[in-house]
């Protein structure tokens, strides 16, 4: 058990009172008792939460909340039409957590609004299902875990692979040594994206949106992209880019596969934002090296298509988004459940669906943390790993291909991954011999404190940036 995990489980830090203290509600004990859920965030993911909870026997979506009144009204109308009951409606999540009669709070907002409602709900004695990535900053993830433990709440993160039969069985197959020793892991997300636009004048905010509340702890200045919702994923202020937003899924699988209880020893990122020339500032082509004790984990993002003018997505060994365990006797694509021999011939496959929401409700009834497939601590550690790589990028600088090759020399798997990145960028007519790619710094990880060794600029990002009155509570 790592020092990080031990510190959390021992509850070495307490959470300070943070705005809406309330006596803890009674836990759900009776298996026949209706579990009342309040869903925060009524966009695409929130709609999925509503469906996955409401269709379960003995579960009722009793309240919905969104600072966008159009989304709020639409969600409430859907529940009324589909399930024949009317949920309470709240614009302000603080009011919902404080006033609504709930057993569970489901947080389906963007990640910059994950920490505070999770902490507040734990204080109010409610269990929580929170979407991935768990946090927007590493330190707030620490506070979220401490709140869950201090108030004895069940908190599940939305990393579906943990409750997906195909992934579970493929990991078991590899861990049993059927392909020999794991040599390294390549995690990758080749998800074509489009530009988020770049306006000369601020985007008009719809009258239906309480913009200050929508921004919450993040900046509430003018928006210069084309759309308000979701595209904030591609700005550092409110999002964390593909290597975190999608990467939490793959990195979580990699840690689980390797039985890694903590964080990598060091990390480095190489990449940048190319072609789009938009208001986004997170990478759309990026590679990251995570130096875990048991085996290296490499992450690869390509949001651009295969080449200029192409409609095809980039792939890795024929797959677009997955986690590849490179072993002595072959390789396995964990999320898709495919196993191959050393010549690339498929030799086995695993199937089966996912029941993460159902697993959470079963745990709420049993009151057993160990029944959760995706406990908050695992979600925090995997999210933290993705933040480590992004922070390397954020403290980096533009460099030429030669400078990058010099920096990563001696790390053969990462050198090969960089070669693929170079080919990909050249296919988009990007001059990689000029200083056009951001070379991150090798950052040494202080696992015990979940920070970096001797790097003030990187640690400032660990701590995060908040806007009053939406401030993160201090932990003591």
Secondary structure layout:
Blueprint: H1 3-9, E1 35-40, H2 44-54, E2 59-65, H3 69-83, E3 88-90, H4 93-99, E4 104-107, H5 115-123, E5 127-130, H6 138-150, E6 155-157, H7 165-175, E7 182-189, H8 211-215, H9 242-245, H10 247-258, E8 266-272, E9 285-290, E10 297-302, E11 321-327, E12 330-333, E13 338-341, E14 346-349, H11 356-366, H12 376-394, E15 397-399, H13 401-408, H14 412-426, E16 437-439, E17 443-446, E18 451-452, H15 456-463
Parallel strand pairs: 1-2, 1-4, 2-3, 4-5, 5-6, 7-10
Antiparallel strand pairs: 7-11, 8-9, 8-16, 8-17, 9-10, 11-12, 12-13, 13-14, 15-16, 17-18
Helix pairs in contact: 5-6, 6-12, 7-10, 10-12
Using the coordinates shown, work out and report the CATH topology of the largest domain. Dihydrodipicolinate Reductase, domain 2
Average pLDDT, rounded to a whole number, is 94
β-strand percent reads 15-25%
* Strand-pairing-aware structural class: alpha/beta
The total number of structural domains is 2
Rg (CA only): 22 Å
**In whole angstroms, how far apart are the ends?**
23 Å
Give the helix proportion (percent range): 25-40%
Task: Give the count of helical stretches.
Answer: 15
Short description:
The chain is of the alpha/beta class and 476 residues long. 33% of the residues lie in helices and 18% in strands.
Structure write-up:
The chain contains 15 helices and 18 strands. The chain has 476 residues and is an alpha/beta fold. The protein has two domains: 3-162 and 357-375, Rossmann fold (3-Layer(aba) Sandwich); 165-353 and 383-463, Dihydrodipicolinate Reductase, domain 2 (2-Layer Sandwich), CATH 3.30.360. Strands 7, 8, 9, 10, 11, 12, 13, 14, 15, 16, 17 and 18 form a twelve-stranded mixed beta sheet that branches.
